[in-house]
């Protein structure tokens, strides 16, 4: 009895010691492919260098459906690790706004808005208000995460907010204006993503670029760029400046079913740097769709059809700019090449698929064309890349100027289209490594495209294999039962 009591006390003491130790040293195994639950070196570095404590008030509703309640638990686990890694500089609390109208008003005043979710209760479906947000506070400064998206990169959002609230001196990024280039309002999603870490300011190339700008963003110029403006770009690069340029050397007009060359002078300027954005259209068997009118008897139907002039890129190089991306659509993209020059280093970031091709401009678009494999005789054509001059400038060049521009007011672009352009600016401008966090998280990978014969084989296999397994199991079981009956009969007669 005494021995059992000693054993119990010893086990309890060990458990208590391990529990106390776990409060100081937080360890967990991360078996996800993208290391979703492992803090990045950039996050650890930012947490280690905090000068003042930060309080995080997490406004999360309780009694939510399991898939949404998981967001609360994941966020709490993240905060525990942030607190441990920061040496106690991160303090957090969880508040349930649904407890009282006063707390709910407090959450809404802080900028945290509820969302409506569908829940089932007693075989009935109803809508419930749910809060999934957080408020960060450092002294008098505050930063709000109004909605923590399930499946999104929580670490990027949280670390970016911490850096934003603790860093008063934001770096300035210049957005080149004029010459028909995309204005700030046309890059609303890009601007929102960049504004967390940078000040986005317009730049007029009629004057020399202000030295405060380390990186310029030049998106979709449509008009001729003056020689004086190009000379100021030269001067900017000579001083070690960095440039992200998204350029249309060709343009497609679906209304008139024509594609033409655009004359801006920028491709010619790039060629003096050893970079060629070709006057061609990339066509790809992996592509987006357009809606066309088709006559079906007495009716006119709007039918979506594949349009190879809208390549859907899913072949990315291993690079911080493209890390974590799934697919990006490039409307009317051109191929990119770089001259063989020992002073230039070119890294292709985005390629077309294994079944693609290039067609020279001008071109006529046959929307109803039946495309065959013979139309796609090339593969992995570069559509974007990084060009670095030895001991000089760096540039990220895209052979399409529209992939991240909001085509219509109120219409959101695909997240990866925005991430690709923002990652490019981050990689050139930010030395903390946050670029690798933006696309970190659980991802949904598209199913690999297969031909019709393979699709039919898989369909029938999915149907027949379970049936055959059941029949096989029944046959084996019947043989075993038959063998047992024969054995019992032999024993009886013996």
What would you say this structure looks like, in words?
This protein has 494 residues and is an alpha+beta fold. The longest helix is centred in the last third of the chain and has 42 residues, at 452-493. The protein is 31% helix and 29% strand. It is globular. The strands form seven sheets. An eight-stranded mixed beta sheet has the order 8-7-9-10-24-23-20-17, sandwiched between helices. A hairpin with a 2-residue loop joins strand 3 (115-121) and strand 4. The chain is built from ten helices and 24 strands. It has three domains: 33-164, Glutaredoxin, CATH 3.40.30.10; 170-436, Rossmann fold; 455-481. It has helices at 2-24, 41-48, 66-85, 101-109, 154-166, 188-194, 227-238, 266-271, 415-429, 452-493, and strands at 54-60, 90-95, 115-121, 124-130, 132-138, 141-145, 171-177, 198-204, 213-219, 242-246, 250-253, 258-261, 275-277, 280-284, 287-296, 299-313, 315-316, 328-329, 336-338, 344-351, 356-360, 363-364, 382-389, 394-398.
Q: Widest sheet: strand order? A: 8-7-9-10-24-23-20-17
CATH architect. name of the largest domain:
3-Layer(aba) Sandwich
CATH class of the largest domain: Alpha Beta
CATH level 4 superfamily of the largest domain = Class I glutamine amidotransferase (GATase) domain
How many structurally independent domains? 3
Specify the structural class.
alpha+beta
User: Can you count the beta strands?
Assistant: 24
Q: What is the overall pLDDT average?
A: 86
List the helices and strands and how they pair.
Blueprint lengths: L1 H23 L16 H8 L5 E7 L5 H20 L4 E6 L5 H9 L5 E7 L2 E7 L1 E7 L2 E5 L8 H13 L4 E7 L10 H7 L3 E7 L8 E7 L7 H12 L3 E5 L3 E4 L4 E4 L4 H6 L3 E3 L2 E5 L2 E10 L2 E15 L1 E2 L11 E2 L6 E3 L5 E8 L4 E5 L2 E2 L17 E8 L4 E5 L16 H15 L22 H42 L1
Parallel strand pairs: 1-2, 7-8, 7-9, 9-10, 10-24
Antiparallel strand pairs: 1-5, 3-4, 5-6, 11-12, 12-22, 13-19, 14-21, 15-16, 16-18, 17-20, 20-23, 23-24
Helix pairs in contact: 6-9
